Structure formats: structure tokens, C-alpha cells
Amino acid sequence: MQAEDQRAILANALLAAFEDGVKDDREREEVWCIADSLTSVSPSIDLRALCQDLLLKRAGLEQAVATLSDDGLQGSPA
Description:
By secondary structure, the protein is mostly helical.
């Protein structure tokens, strides 16, 4: 999986967590686990910048999904 794929997956996880507007500790912990896993493989992901981009709507779901390199990662039917 490429770094852009990992960033897009993390963006999707963050967007899902932000969507309901609830600050749930379990959800936050799971997002951080995903982030730790992905950033350990690809340390080029800047989590703070990604969160800022998402919160300030400089990036969104459509953009994140569009950057995925593999249709299987995009959730397209087989």
C-alpha cells in the first residue's frame, strides 16, 4: 500500500470520527491506533496537518477516496 493510500484511509477514519460530533474516548483511541499503525509504516503522514485539512475542509471524503490507487481500497464492487 502506498503512502497516499495510507493517508486516504486515515482521512476516512478521521472523517467518520468527526461526523457524529461526539467526542468518544473509545473512538478516539481506535483512530489513534489506526494512525499509529499507518504512520509507523509511512512516517511521512503528518497527522496534525491532516486533521487541520479535514477540519478546515481543505480536504474531504471524495478527495480521499479518489486518491486511493486500487479499486478494492475504494470499496468498489468486484
